[in-house]
Fold these 2 entries.
Entry 1:
Amino acid sequence: MMRPAFRDALLGLTGFLVLAALPLVFVSSALIDFVIRCAALGLFATSLNLLVGYGGMVSFGHGLFFGMGAYSFGIIMQRTGMPIPLAILLSLGVAALVALVVGAICVRLKEIYFAFVTLAFQMLVHSMIIAWVPVTGGDQGLRGGIPRPPFLGINLADQKQLYLFAAALLIIGLLAMRHIVSSPFGYTLRMIRDNPVRAGFLGIDVYRTRLTAFVLAGMFASLGGVIMSLFVSGAYPEFAFWTMSGEAVFIVMLGGTVAFLGPMVGTVLLLLLNDFVTRVAEHHGLVLGIVILIFALGLRKGLLDFVMDWIEARRTRRGAASLVPAPSPERIAT
Amino acid sequence: MLEISNLVKAFGGVRATDDVTMSFAAGSLTAIIGPNGAGKSTFFNLLTGALKPDSGDIRLDGQSLVDLSIGQIVRRGIGRAFQVASIFPSLTVEETMLAAVSAHHGHSGRLGQRFPLPSTLTHTAHCIEMVGLTSKRATLSANLSHGDQKLLDIALALVLEPKVLLLDEPTAGMGPEERWRVIEKVRELWETTKITVVFIEHDMDIVFRIAPSIRVLSYGRVLAEGTPQQIRTNPAVIEAYLGTEHEAAA
C-alpha cells in the first residue's frame, strides 16, 4: 500500500496540475476569479474546521484572523514594499501572535463561552479597524491598491500568475493542514474533542493542545486573508466582521466536518450558490437560508459527509449482508 | 505493596471513609464489596488522588502518595478504569491505544511526523492483546459492546504500565454472559501480568469465584477481610450485607 503522506502529496500535485490546466481549457476570467476566491475562502473554512471538526471548538470569531491576514499583508506591502513571500510570512506571524493571546484566554472556556468570547474578540478587532483610520483607512478600508512587486520572476499584478500563485498556496495550505490532522498532535486533538477528562488522565496537556490548534488555525485563516487582499488589492472591514465568521461556519455546515475536504466542497457550493442566486433572485439571502435549512434538517450533515457515509453504507451492505448490521453513529472527523 | 493506614475522609458530618487501614500485597487480586453508600468509590477516589484525605496515609512501595497530584499518582503506578467506560467514541480501538501510547511516551504534541509513530506499535499491540481486543482493533470504539468498552478502558489504564490497577465495578451494566467474559479477562490479565488488582464489585457470585481475597466496607469502615470462605461465614457480614440466601449456600 502507498504511504499516506506520499499519497496526499501526489493528490496535492494532481490537484495543482488540474487547477493549472483549467484556464487553458476554459478561457474565462470569471473562472479565474472564482478559483482565487475559492482558494481564499477554502483555506479560511478548512482552518475553521481544524477547530470545529477536529478540536470540537466552535469558534464564532474566526473571521478575526482572515481580516488580520488581509490587513497585515496590505499594510506591510503599502508601507514597506518588502518582497511578497517575506510579507506573507510576516503576516502569518502577526496572526499567530494575536491567536496566541486570544487563544490563551478563550481555549479554557466551555463550548458556548468559547463561541461567544471568540466573537467578542472579533468585534473588538473590527472596531479597532474602523477606529484606527490613519493605519487601516477606517470604514473605507485599505485603499489605493496593494503594491505587487515581482519576485523570483513571478508578477502577481498579472491575473493569470496570481491565479497560479493562489492555487499553489491553496494546495500547500491544504497539504499542511492535512499533515497536521494526520500527526500525533492531530490524534491528540481528536481525543480531547471526544473526552477531555480522560485525555488529561493519560497525561495529555489539554490546554496546550487546544491553544496550539487555535494558533495554527489562526495562521491558515490569515493565509486565506492574504490571498483575498491580493485578489481585491485592498482590505475591508467586512473581512473581520462577524458575517465573515458566519460564512465560514455556513461553509463548514454545507460541506461537512468529517471528511477533510468537506469545507472545500462547502466553499465551492457556497460561491456557486452565491453567484447563481444573486443573478436570478432578488432576495438571495432568503434562498441561501432555505438551502442551509435543507442541509441542516434534511441531510443533517454536510454534503461530502453525506456522500461518504452513503458510499460506506453501500460497501458494508454489499460486503457483509449476513454480518451484524453496523450501526453508523454520528461520525465526527477522523 | 499498597498500604493504607488510618485513612479518613468526611463530607460534612458523614465519614465516608472512617479510619480505614488495609494493605494489598504486590501481585494480589482483591475484591472490595459493601452495600451502596459504604464508601467504596470514595475509597478509590482517595487512592487515585481525585479526593484528598482528611487524615491518614497511603503508601505505594513505602512512598506516600497523599500530597501528590492525580498525574503524579498515575506516574507512580496507580492506574484506574472508570465505572462508566471512559473512552474516545470516534476513534477505533487501535487509534485510541496508539494515541494513548504516544501520550505516555510524551509525544502527544508532535506535529512533524505522521500518526502512528513507529515507536508506539509494539506497546500498543501488547496492551490490546492483554485485554483480548486484537480482533476488534479496527472497530470504532462507539460500536463496541459494553463489555469491550470496559476492556478498552482497562487497556487505556494499562498503557501507563501501572503497578496497581483499580477497577471500579468492571462489570456494571452488563448482562450475565458479558459479565463473566469481562471478569474472566480481568483474572487472566492478573495472572499473566501479576499487577496488583483491586476491584469493586456488586455481584457476589463473581466475587466469591474470582477473588482470593475480599474486603468488606460498611459505613466507611472495614467490616471484615479474608478469603471468600471466611467472608461467607462471617456473622457481621451476613447481617450487614449478604442476607440469608448466602448463609444457606455456605
Note: Chain B has one domain: 2-249.
Entry 2:
Amino acid sequence: MELLKRNAVPLLLVAAQWPVGWLLSQTVNSYYLQIIVYIGINAMLAVSLNLINGITGQFSLGHAGFMAVGAYVSAACSLFLVNGWPAALALPAILLAGGLAAALAGLVVGLPTLRLRGDYLAITTLGFGEIIRVVILNTAAVGGARGLGGMPPLSDFASVYACTIVCVLVIWRLVHSPLGKAFTAVREDEIAAAAMGIDTTRYKITAFVLGAFWAGVAGALFAHFIGYIHTNSFTFLKSVEVVVMVVLGGMGSISGAIIAAAVLTVLTEALRFLADYRMIIYSVLLIVMMLTRPGGLLGRHEITQWRFWSSRTAR
Amino acid sequence: MLTIRNLHVRYGAVHALQGVSLTVAAGEIVTLIGSNGAGKSTLLRAISGLHRPSAGEILWKGAAQIETLAPHRIVALGLCHVPEGRQVFANLTVRENLDLGAYQRKDKAEIREGIERAYTLFPILKERQQQLSGTLSGGEQQMLAIARALMARPELLLLDEPSLGLAPLVVQTIFKVIQEINAQGTTILLVEQNAHMALRIAQRGYVLQTGKIVLEDSGKNLLNSPEVRAAYLGD
C-alpha cells in the first residue's frame, strides 16, 4: 500500500498510456503511429545502452544482439508456449521471457568480458552480437533465414510506452539513488572507485545485465508489434544506431538519450524521400553535431538541470 | 597494525618487489622513500588489493591475511588508499566526491560528521563544494583526494605521493594536515619522493631501491644518514 502510494504518479502515468493509445489510434494514421511506437522502442534501447555506455563508461557494441535475444525468445514463447492465452497474461509473460533471456545473455557475456576496457570490450561485445545473429540465422526452429512470423500483435502504443516509462524510471532512480553515483565513479576512474571501497565489478555487471534486460524487453515489444522478425533487423548497424543515439544525446544523460532517439527515428523517416542520399545528410548532421557540441545535445546533464546550457557541457 | 612479510610483486616479466618486509604500528607515520621505479606505488597497490602479489603475506592487525582480498573488502577492514596523481572524479562535484568516499558507510549522522571534519581540515573544499572537482587546482584536488579517503574512516591511510607536482607552499599545507590527521588517531603510511619533508614528519622510514628495502630507521636518523643525504636529498 505504502509502495503504491509512493509510486502513484508513475503508476498513473503508465496507466494513462492506454487511453492515450486509444485516442491516437482514432486520430493519427497508422504510419505515423508506427513511427511513434518506434520512438518508444528506440528510446528504451538508447536509455538502457546509456546505462552501460554513458553512465558506467563501458563501451558496448552488442545492444542489437541483446535485442535479438529478447525478440526471438519472446516470439518463440508466444508461438509455442503461451499460444492462446489472453493478451493481458501473454504480454507480461513474453516481455519477461524476452527480458530475462537477454539479461542472462548479458550476464554470460559480461562476466568474462567486463575485465576488458575500452576498445577491447567494444570488440568483444560486437563479436557477441554477430554470434547471436549468426546462430539465429542458422537455427531452423526459429525460422533461420526465412525469419520468424505469425506472432500475435500483442504490443501496441500503450504497452510500448508503458514499458518505456518503467524502463526510464527504473534506470533514472537507480543512478540517482545514493549508491547510484557509484556507476558514475566507475566511469570516471575505476582505480579510484576501487580504492574508495566500491565493488567495481558488481556495478559493471549490474549495468550490463540491466541494460541487456531492457534491450530484451524492447526486442520483445518490437517482435510483437510488427509480427515478423528477421536477423537483418539486428545487425551491427542497429547497435551502431543505438550508440549514435547515446552519443548524440550526451553520454550519461538519460533525457538526452530519449531526445536523440526521437530525433533520429523521425529523421530516418523524414529523409526517406531522398532514398540512399539520406545517409549522407545523416552523417553530415552527425559531423556538424560533434563539431559544435562534442559532448552531445545535453552533455552529461539532464533536461531537468538547467546547467546543460552552460559552456561546461562541452567536455 | 600492518605487517608485510617477504612480499613479491610481478608485472609480467618485471619483478617489481623482491621480498619486501615492513611493519606499521598503530598511531605511527611511516614514510617510504625511493626513486622513480623503486616499487613504492606498487607496494601501496598491493596492500590495497589493486594488484595481487605473487608471493608473501600482508597481515592486518596481526591476524587477518589480506593479500588475496578484493579492494572493496580491504577498505571495509579500515585501510584506505589515496592513489597517485590525485584521482578525483573530475565530472562530479566536490561534495559528490566526498559522498562517494563514504560509500561503505551507512550511518547518515556519521557521514555528515565526516564531511564537517573534511571541511575543517580543508576549509577551501567547503567553498568549492558545488564545483566540479575537475576544475579545482592541483593542490585542491590533492586535498579532495585525501578528504575523500578519510570519509571511509580508515584506521590506516595509504598516501601515494601527495606532494606530486604541487607548489612548495601547498605541499607544506598538505603535510601539516597529514600530521593533524595522524594526531587525530589515523595511522599513516606515506610514500614520497620529497624525502626531506616526508622524513621530517615520520616516526620511522624505509628506503626502497629497485624492489628491495635497503635501509630502515627512525625518520630523524634517515634524514641524517649519509647514504640518504647523498641519494635522495641532493647533498
Note: Confidence is low (pLDDT under 50) at residues 308-315 of chain A.
